[in-house]
Design brief:
34% of the residues lie in helices and 15% in strands. The protein has eleven helices and ten strands. β5, α6 and β6 form a beta-alpha-beta unit. The N and C termini lie far apart (55 Å). Bound molecules: iron/sulfur cluster (SF4). Iron/sulfur cluster (SF4) is lined by residues 163, 165, 207, 212, 215-216, 219-220, 303-304, 306-307, 332. Iron/sulfur cluster binds next to α10.
């Protein structure tokens, strides 16, 4: 079988919105790599190969799909959903979750996956844990992970921590990602009693006086602990070069800070350990992955509104987080037990 997708390229060089949406849908279903060839109909160029095909099959919309079976019979689809339904409905799922309750051998896994691509790590994680594995979503790296996970066609979970102090842009961004990937986003909020007591005693900006640890403890660490207690594994977007505290970051390890479902050991994965910020952004731009609009305003690492500021050229990407504190203390407790 040979599958051709005809897409329309607009005068500004970008694909048309419908073509982008169709590509997203195929990625979400893990079918993007089944497209053998993409042919472009370039706006204003009737001689471009996509327009020639459109004329040949008398089609006036983009995208459309041509499927040639092994006997040479051609089927034409104007609707992406019809194309998916008719072409792939009889196929068994390419990947299956092979859920097992056996405790993983983290050292052997680290050895096996060190240096492998993030996609390989995610594929393994979702094959092994399925929906029992959650991606922790807040920043640019995390959406790269969601995009990669969506392409496997395997089930997975996503949660985020709503501290109550995020930028309005971040809340809009969370919704955008939820809609784009059609994910059930588990939004974790702080324990209301603990938060009320804390705010009543310390006010709304105590972190500028005595450090971020206590506020992050109430608004982030406790909700994270609660979220993780429902899973057996989680995936974070941490990278080694983000901070001096992350220089020893492993790809796969036992989470020493938190426990999983029924207090079982939790497997933590950091598939982007060895990626640089440029690699993350290259992926985002190439794959049209949504990103927080604050990045266009000079914010590089984005957390809560009062504790994040834009960075200057030449500054480290996390210099805008808790900038009034020592660089070695700029973790919020999400990734190190000793800082809770
Ligand atoms: S980042 Fe700032 S506002 Fe957000 S939880 Fe931590 S200390 Fe509180």
């Amino acid at each position: 079988m040979k599958i051709t997708m005809v897409k329309k390229e607009l005068a500004d060089g970008q694909p048309c919105d419908k073509c982008k949406q169709a590509e997203d849908l195929l990625k979400q279903r893990g079918l993007w790599e089944r497209i053998d060839e993409v042919v472009w109909a370039v706006e204003g160029k009737p001689e471009s190969p996509g327009f020639v095909l459109a004329q040949e099959y008398n089609i006036k919309i983009a995208p459309f799909f041509l499927v040639e079976d092994d006997e040479g019979k051609m089927s034409v689809y104007r609707s992406t959903l019809q194309f998916i339904k008719k072409t792939f409905s009889d196929e068994p799922k390419r990947f299956k979750v092979e859920s097992t309750s056996e405790t993983p051998n983290w050292e052997a896994l680290e050895e096996e996956f060190r240096g492998r691509s993030p996609q390989d790590v995610i594929q393994w994680a979702l094959t092994r844990f399925g929906e029992d594995c959650a991606i922790a979503f807040s920043g640019a790296e995390d959406v790269v992970l969601i995009d990669m996970a969506a392409q496997t066609g395997l089930p997975f979970s996503v949660f985020c921590l709503d501290t109550g102090r995020l930028h309005p842009e971040t809340y809009e961004y969370l919704e955008k990602v939820r809609n784009r990937y059609k994910i059930k986003l588990q939004i974790m909020t702080p324990n209301s009693e603990a938060l009320q007591t804390f705010v009543q005693e310390k006010g709304l900006f105590s972190f500028f006086e005595d450090g971020h640890k206590e506020c992050c403890g109430v608004r982030k660490v406790e909700p994270l602990r609660r979220a993780l207690s429902g899973y057996r594994a989680w995936i974070s977007g941490q990278r080694k070069d983000q901070s001096p505290t992350r220089s020893e970051l492993l790809v796969i390890h036992k989470d020493e800070a938190f426990e999983g479902v029924d207090a079982s050991p939790l497997t933590k994965m950091n598939p982007l350990t060895d990626w640089s910020s440029s690699q993350v952004w290259e992926y985002i731009l190439k794959n049209h992955v949504p990103y927080n609009p604050l990045h266009q305003k000079g914010f590089r690492s984005i957390g809560c509104e009062p504790c994040t500021r834009p960075t200057l050229p030449g500054e480290h990407e996390r210099a805008g987080r808790w900038w009034w504190e020592d660089a070695t203390k700029r973790e919020c407790g999400l990734h190190i037990a000793s800082d809770e």
